[in-house]
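Subject: complex prediction, re-run

Hi both,

The earlier run crashed halfway through, so I resubmitted it with identical inputs.
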Amino acid sequence: MSLVARYLEANGLPTVIIGSALDIVEHCGVPRFLFTDFPLGNPAGHPWDRAMQEKIVRQAVGLLESAPGPRATVKAPFGWKASDPGWRARYGRVDPAERERLLALGAERRRRMAELKAAEKS
Amino acid sequence: MLAILRRLAHRPGAVEKVSTRMIDSGEPVPYMERTRHYYRALGYAKDYVWARHDEVPFARLAKPLSQCRLALITTAMPDGHSGKRQLWSGTVDPPPARLHTDNLAWDKESTHTDDRGSFLPIEAAAALAREGFIASLAPRFHGVPTDYSQRSTTEEVAPRLLQRLRDDGADGAILCPL
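This time it finished cleanly. Structure:
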């Protein structure tokens, strides 16, 4: 999505990204970014919290106008649910005890991708 | 979040010590590092290398926000989608109840995508239009695939997306990757 933002911007269309993967977006380099520090999947706010979603979109839209220049990153003033303090450590974790299961998962994934590629060629 | 692959020498299948007991410092999640470790554990012999640019383009709004029509863009696909991901568009009125997100890399252990507004905030953006904060929401939102090569994104998907945004009279875009 960062590359899409860059393309649109280079062609004169202002953009703002609302997202939760701070390192990836900033690594790419984008014009405007509202960082929402949530688990991946709900960049625009907690599920079913329309009031929070509206505040986040308002802040992002405001950034369209107020950003002084490229690489404008602003952090939204909301955290994830207090009842789930362990979310940051959870995503994509690798437990050494699961080595065999993960390798099997990877093998299955490569098999499926090969099938998809073969289907596209035929 | 697009990546190109680069060959790196390491032992496929090596499981690095990223513990589930990691202390939460409150710092943003290092997704690139986590992803590298995870795919090595899956036995991939190549690491993802994320796009990186020194120069960043920047365009200013041509008019005040209250006169702007804005478009929403998602990485989700239509509800019931299967097969190859591609550029698609949907209406904001009526908005879709659900979108297909199963094939995207979001945190399926910590949250869910049952509320479409949490990743494609049509209602929130429409509310800003109703109160005059922006002039209007573009009649269509757009879905972009994220599993393509950098070349495909910049040479094929993005130009077609730009054309659709221009066709809809959009003055700016809000991009919401999951």
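Chain B has two domains: 2-41, 65-176.

- K.
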